[in-house]
Design goal:
186 residues, alpha+beta, three-stranded antiparallel sheet, two-stranded antiparallel ribbon, globular
Amino acid sequence: MTFEEALIEHCSPTLAGVKPASLFRFCPRDSALFARRFLALRQQFAARGLRLVILKGCRRTGSYLLYLYRERDLAEVLGRREHRDFLRAMGYTPWEAPGDCLRQLAARLCLEEEFPHEIGVFLGYPLEDVVGFIRNRGRNYTCCGYWKAYGDPEAAQKRFDQYRRCTAACCEQFRKGTAITQLIAA
């Protein structure tokens, strides 16, 4: 799978503007080609309000954990009082901009033994689901799709279906020759 194919497969809802952010793992076959494509796409996305960053790289496997986000949408998510309070309770220090908070998340990904499950906030998951996952240690969920939901299963299923339809449509358009930058919603 090419870098662009992986990005579309995992980030279509963010490209389409229905989700504030997406996260995916990519292990390039050709590191030099990956670096060129990553830098080119990062620049093209930035012109449209999207940020593509590497949160973590693994020397052992050569894989990367990549994060694509809509700057305005992530700022809105991280600016909500309940999200700020939750992240502060999880040990995050106050931040001025999303990038400040993302640096703290990246440090946790690299330095902590356990995966920082508060990452769900950064992906736009409902806070009750993020908190429910942490409290229940991934068990006792009401339904499972893009994440494990602990609240209203019908609302979660609706969102999962929206993300699936969006991904299918973007993948189909890309296969037909549409450029990745043309899949970005305003």
